[in-house]
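R.M. (postdoc): so does anyone remember the format we settled on? I'll just put the structure tokens first.
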């Protein structure tokens, strides 16, 4: 009989696979997480009133259709360059130095065209700019 004590083997725990799994989980959660972006600028959009108003005769009416053609008091401009828009508004001013500019844009009009009209008005020192709206079917209820 062998009565000598058995040599105990040192227990070794290999944690390399554990680190790999934790690292992969970390990468998975980092890639799959979506972050909420909050705007830094708070914008309150204007609301249209339910009342319909007729354009005043002492105002400059600028209409923009869906094809981005610009009409000033019913006359179509030859192009949409800002200098042409500015000249058209200046010609429509006549003897009304502080006339309001009423912009009527089609719903499919690119935003840039409205900005061009507003910029041309601002360059002529016209700051009274309004937007024409129409009463929708939802407003009638």
């Amino acid at each position: 009989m062998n009565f000598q004590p058995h040599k105990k083997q040192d227990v070794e725990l290999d944690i390399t696979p554990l680190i790999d799994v934790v690292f992969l989980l970390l990468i998975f959660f980092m890639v799959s997480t979506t972050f909420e972006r909050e705007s830094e600028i708070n914008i309150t959009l204007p609301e249209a009133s339910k009342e319909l108003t007729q354009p005043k005769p002492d105002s400059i009416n600028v209409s923009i259709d869906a094809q981005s053609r610009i009409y000033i008091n019913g006359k179509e401009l030859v192009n949409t360059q800002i200098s042409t828009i500015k000249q058209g508004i200046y010609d429509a001013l006549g003897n009304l130095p502080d006339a309001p500019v009423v912009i009527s844009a089609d719903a499919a009009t690119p935003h840039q065209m409205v900005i061009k009209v507003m910029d041309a008005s601002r360059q002529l020192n016209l700051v009274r700019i309004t937007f024409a709206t129409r009463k929708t079917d939802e407003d009638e209820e």
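R.M.: ...and that's the designed sequence above, right after the tokens. Also worth knowing: The first strand starts at residue 60 and ends at 64. Confidence is low (pLDDT under 50) at residues 39-46.
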